[in-house]
Amino acid sequence: MSDTTIIKVDSAHSPHGKEGQKYLASGKTVSMRLWENEAPNEAKAPVAREYETVGYVIAGRAELHLEGQMVLLEKGNSWIVPQGASHTYKILEPFTAVEATHPPAQVHGRDE
Questions:
Q1: CA-CA distance, 65 to 63, in Å (whole number)?
Q2: When you count CB atoms within 10 A of the terminal residue's CB, does the N or C end of the chain come out lower?
Q3: In a 10 Å sphere around its CB, with 0-12 CB exposed, 13-18 middle and 19+ buried, how is residue 81 labelled?
Q4: Which fold would CATH assign to domain 15-109?
């Protein structure tokens, strides 16, 4: 029999990561997180993570700097950061986005 587990997560009670992200539902191979009302900031030092990220902008604007390229992320845009790609974000105005990561970012210290 296949796994029939249902997971429901209320973001009002979600744990937070060190960078301010809220961890949402998480399965064995994919997880979600929410960046909510992130304040404008300068880009941090680029990082390369051991997971792939896909995201969707709910509100605000940010620049995604990835391997020497830059794309503007605005409400309604989605993006992908490949596993191992050097990248950083510069938040231009209060920014809310949801991301899915594969494998789950918060497991085995991948999100540190």
A1: 6
A2: N
A3: buried
A4: Jelly Rolls (2.60.120)
